[in-house]
Amino acid sequence: SLRLVQPHLLDTGTLRTDFLCTISGISDGRVCYGERLRSGIVDIKEDDAIDLFQEMIRSRPLPSLVDFSRFFSGVASTKQFNLVLDFCKKMELNGIAHNIYTLNIMINCFCRCCKTCFAYSVLGKVMKLGYEPDTTTFNTLINGLCLESKVSEAVVLVARMVENGCQPNVVTYNSIVNGICKSGDTSLALDLLRKMDERNVKADVFTYSTIIDSLCRDGCIDAAISLFKEMETKGIKSSLVTYNSLVGGLCKAGKWNDGVQLLKDMTSRKIIPNVITFNVLIDVFVKEGKLQEANELYKEMITKGISPNTITYNSLMDGYCMQNRLSEANNMLDLMVRNNCSPDIVTFTSLIKGYCKVKRVDEGMKLFRKISKRGLVANTVTYSILVQGFCQSGKLEIAEELFQEMVSLGVLPDVMTYGILLDGLCDNGKLEKALEIFEDLQKSKMNLDIVMYTIIIEGMCKGGKVEDAWNLFCSLPCKGVKPNVMTYTVMISGLCKKGSLSEANILLRKMEEDGNEPNDCTYNTLIRAHLRDGDLTASAKLIEEMKSCGFSADASSIKMVIDMLSSAVWWFKEPRRSPGVKRFRGTQAYLMPFNTITASLNFNTIEAHGMSSAELHRDLRQVGRSEVLKKRSARGLDDAECDLMVDLELPTDAVHNAHRAGKMRRC
Fold this sequence. Notes:
Number of helices: 38
Radius of gyration: 36 Å
GO cellular component, one term: mitochondrion
Family: Belongs to the PPR family. P subfamily.
Strand content: under 5%
Keywords: Repeat
PPR repeats: 99-133, 134-168, 169-203, 204-238, 239-273, 274-308, 309-343, 344-378, 379-413, 414-448, 449-483, 484-518, 519-553
GO molecular function: mRNA binding
Distance between the termini: 100 Å
């Protein structure tokens, strides 16, 4: 009788599970596939899925296509897409025909594997078998195209979808919105959101969260907050994903307090923050040097019962290393291991970087050698940090050996690695070798950035090859590379050292024309060059210009002025005793701009750069006394100020301001 019933049951696809369990004859005590499907197959492992599929295939009568669809969907939910496709093929080989549901599952699996070309072939099969593609079919394909960044093709498919009588729904639009946002065109995604309103397609939390996240990534935090409020006005409840995006966006915009406030807002709305929420906040606080706040958040997540993960510990360890607190970083590593959280290569790279930062490169190297014993593989960043550490400590041979090691092990150096190596070679007097490597890099397909060219230009200038540096600098536009502020400053410094001050001045103006605003380093480089050349008028003008841009003189520039002040006084008094002092271009040319220099230079920066105020006071008092000025002490000048004024003929205010710096307390 079973032989007579089976064909009918297979045709109708209505096999009852309890009947299947009865006829399967589970004599060995195993739970039949029907029971497994009813109880759910969440997080099913590959071996268990294979066993269950084999059981379904062996069952007589065969399971219904509904059961197969349920099984395939369950396995697909665990992202074992290739396994599902393998099952579909074997099902077909066993003479079991697909229906629209199993075919849709196949299309989804191909799309999730970024194989839309195969998904289209299944679509062809759908039509060949006489099935009509439904909204799910089209939505699945559209999502697959967007996952492959083929948004324009997805839009074309939407038009075809409408032609087939299937109306796009919120799922359709969400796929397109997600694809557009991933392509970086957030404004277009916002336009599409408005069109959804016009077409009476109600956007959901996924639509808004996707655009909010994209706005946060673009740094448009105000627009993201505005959209968040619009979302709430429409009665769409925010999800954890929405809050995580906003928290991250606020923190990246420097609005840490708002980010923390949003965390409290989540709790009040009974949206439980997860480890991602806390990781975003902790990471941003660490990068801003707010390690105490990061630790408080860490304690809060523990209190809330949220277990820190590897990313949490890595962020905190990186924070300790940034502040040279290596013992605490190592304690965090021990805590991480005790809490059964496995350290990864990022963990050890942070520690190695910390050791290199405090000049304990050898200890960093010992830790590096232990990485492989833990089953971890050092990456380009790890090697680059160590190469830099040895270069900066003057151990160039070890740095070069490490570089060769990474190449031999198949760890490819990137632009940053080569930049570190070239910088190390230039700083350690191996310019020629650096130039050889640089020449090979230019011939390679590696995309050299402006940082790399700046390193070589600086190396050439320091190595006395200013002409070569200038030629390379001038060739940058032809190479499609635009010089930045650092490149200009390095080239200006090279020209100054060569004595080509007029060319350096011209380059300063060219720099501004090209949209690169000079920084304090640029100005101080030129100011010192003009001071050395004795051109105080040019120095005074540059100081005024620098001051108007919000910059101040650095310690080197200030000390040069102080030394000149002392030397100049002796030159006026006894020029024959001061053969090393360069004669300034006329007494008046010297005296007048010096007033501007002493008045404009911010002597307070001496304290910030570690120069003793007492040193300035001592230098100022080197000026000899004058009986004549004793009569003018009534103007409020003390003895040292009077001495300075009479010898340099400076106005009272300028001298008083300069001398006052010598009386300030150290902060």
